Sequence to fold (327 residues):
Amino acid sequence: MASSGSTSISIDESHPFFLHHAENPGLVLVSQPLIGGENYPTWARSMERALRIKSKFWLIDGSVSLTSAMEKVPILVQSWARCNDIVVSWIINCVSPRIATSMVYRKTAKEVWNKLQNLFSQGNGPRVYQLQKDLASFSQGELSVTEYFTNLSILWDELQNYEPIPTCSCEKCVCNVNEKISKIHHREAVMQFLMGLNDSFSHVRGQILLMDPIPSVEKVFSLLIQDEKQRSVGQGNNGGPFVESTALAAKGTSFGPKNYKGKGKERPTCSHCGLQGHTVEKCYKLHGYPPGYKTKGKASLVNQVSAHIDSQDSFLHAQPQTQFPFT
Fold:
């Protein structure tokens, strides 16, 4: 509680001048320090968010200046000065040592913030040109759908930071122009997203383009993720058996017993009947069949010649004895 004569004011957690006991000058609000123009846009956005969380961004935008504090409640001048010095320390802690050296002589947080903005904030024109160029040439390539969409989102967000979507602020519009502009913006994002996809997604891309109305970019991303997962599952199920069946087919064709042509000992061929496995000297058709030999038909005989090769020798050597009658 602070008081001066009849004036009293309570500084609690909801008051902009309130400082928690943990909010000391050595506090670091962002993880990545400012090193120059290359990371200023992301650093400034992160720093602005952190100061808003601490309820101290009013020192940056000048909504509560020292003059206004002195006019309203003179006794709070010291509280204003404490908050200002704390925020200056926080900003200096979040920049590189080289940059911090040039900021120590600035008195107010607003001066420090404006100085950094003037030094490192790039003009909108060159940066917008580069972002538009990157978006026009960006494609999926070897990236997954998730990686591709994430990189696109980063470019979209930064471009929107430089060129925010125009909205009607007069609060008298009855034609829903804000909603119409937003739909056009999202439709362009969907088209940009689909144009950069690989040709392997041409089928699902065609289905999305046939939808009326065109779904949101988040819904399109969800559909593509589902298609990508189904495709990976299908490839996992079909890859193994396909290779295995192909190998088996090749094995049956190349190494089957009917097609085997090995280079072993050459089998003899009969010059009389033309069959393999015996010579003309041992041909059954020429010299006669042994007693008890049973034929199974011409086709069967041809197939069984090789099975009886070993038995032919024994039958031919065992000549039948001629019996003469006694006189």
Residues 1-6, 239-264, 297-327 have pLDDT under 50 and may be disordered.
